[in-house]
Amino acid sequence: MKLLVTGGAGFIGSAVVRRAVAQGIEVVNLDALTYSASLTNVASLADSPLYAFEHVNICDAPAVRAVFARHRPDVVMHLAAESHNDRAIEDPLSFVQTNVIGTGVLLEAAREHWRALPKAEQATFRFHHVSTDEVFGALGEDGAFSETTPYDPNSPYSASKASADHLVRAWSRTFGLPVVITNCSNNYGPYQFPEKLIPTVISRALEGKTIPVYGKGLQVRDWLHVDDHAEALLLVLEKGRLGETYAIGGDATKPNIELVNILCRHLDALAPANGPHADKIAFVTDRPGHDFRYAIDASKLRDELGWRPRIALGDGLEDTVRWYVENRDWWQAIRDRGFESERQGLVKA
């Protein structure tokens, strides 16, 4: 199988690419290498005969079509997206361009490619669109998102991802393109760009800076280790029912302030400072449209395909803190090229 992954130099995409190659899958990584992507994330694969890289923006229709013609993929996994809520508030139209227009361009290229395939290859082709639980809006004190939850996005980011989901379904129902869609909860783990909540907390703590937390830190998120997510994505790609949506969650909900305190305790053990890292927590003004609570009911994925998360949140957070402590060169290089996570915001969280 030859797999085309868009956004394969990003956080989740690179985890998918590394896992797929390890499983013996031939991978073509298409990435525009915007600010949050890095070929360092897939440097271990540079000499693999199973790996190829294409420096292409998904909004560039001729270049995208050329990639399909050159590599003739058997399946596509679409992860390329703008994903940071704070940036979406500052520059919403860039999210519309990448997440909506880019998805439309990719769908058209995939449709042209699929229609030109021999019948046997048409029958096994599929387009896997990777989305987020944020398209469903916010939950109250209880309940969980599932595949049947109505869409109710509250931010430019989540609205752009909801639009992309609708385009994928439209290409399936109008043109017959074989698709699957997944909606996941918040990811964490190695190689996550420093503007997101967990690496922001870790990197700022290691630099002796304050740790900003929105509001009172009571927003609740479900946390999923990126390696568990990559495993689930490849499973859905291979065995998911065409036309279906699968919700992917870590079954690990925590208020942000509780999560930050857990990270601080791991930092105290792995990178002790003059005092507890939690003393650096600073509550800041909440961001506009900040959803209160997310949770995922992943029972469909469990019941149909036998998947469940393997990495417990406590173990995953400790391992993640250790990775950032031991790989300071990776995130400090991001600092050196001009990124500085000085926004009050922390993340998609």
Question: In a few lines, what is going on in this structure?
Answer:
This protein is of the alpha/beta class and 349 residues long. It contains twelve helices and twelve strands. The chain is globular and about 65 Å long.
Explain what this protein looks like in three dimensions.
The structure is a single chain. By secondary structure, the chain is of the alpha/beta class. Helix content is 43%, strand content 16%. The strands form 3 sheets. The protein has a 7-stranded parallel beta sheet with strand order 3-2-1-4-5-6-10, sandwiched between helices. Strands 7-9-11 form a 3-stranded mixed beta sheet. Strand 1 (2-6), helix 1 and strand 2 (26-31) form a beta-alpha-beta unit. Helix 11 (313-326) crosses helix 12. The radius of gyration is 20 Å and the shape is globular.
Q: Segments where pLDDT lies below 50 for 5+ residues?
A: 340-349
Strand tally: 12
* Class of secondary structure makeup: alpha/beta
Q: How big is the Rg? A: 20 Å
**Number of alpha- plus pi-helical segments:** 12
Largest sheet: 7 strands, parallel
Task: Tell me the distance between the termini.
Answer: 35 Å
Strand order of the largest sheet: 3-2-1-4-5-6-10
**Beta fraction:** 15-25%
Q: Residue share in helices?
A: 40-55%
Shape: globular
Element pattern in H and E:
EHEEHEHHHEHEEHEEHEEHEHHH
Q: What integer is the average pLDDT?
A: 94
